[in-house]
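User: hey, got a sec? need Phosphopantetheine adenylyltransferase folded
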Amino acid sequence: MKKAIFPGSFDPITLGHEDIIKRAIPLFDEIVIAIGINAEKKYMFSLEDRKRFIEETFKNEPSVTVISYEGLTIDLCKKLGADFILRGLRNPADFEFEKAIAHTNRYLSKIETVFLLTAARTSYISSSIVRDVLRNGGEYQKLVPKAVRLK
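Assistant: Yep! Here you go:
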């Protein structure tokens, strides 16, 4: 069974994240979207909201589950029996950053990282851009799945 962990803060999930996950579904038997918890980071959305946004977005995908975790992603992979970490790449800067982490993870654990390039139509979207649009009253709905709606 091929199981992948897709880690991130997902604050909030974007159309880029959604695209990567949808394109990865045929590649893996199971994808665990793992919301990392960093006590030193200030989030715009609560953990409960981030989890709800993702679960709603993938409610019709039985191979996709959502959890939260603390600590190293490779430790989570070992705990869940996952042999792969899934990551999306938007640009060369993402690649350089993610490459160093992937090499470290493989050296420490033998867990492989699988990279998917974001679609051209979503490659400019990041959670930090979405948060900035939100803070300034912009049309964030064009950047996130339908489940991400503010009341």
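Quick note: The domain at 3-142 is CATH 3.40.50.620 (Rossmann fold). Let me know if you need anything else on Phosphopantetheine adenylyltransferase.
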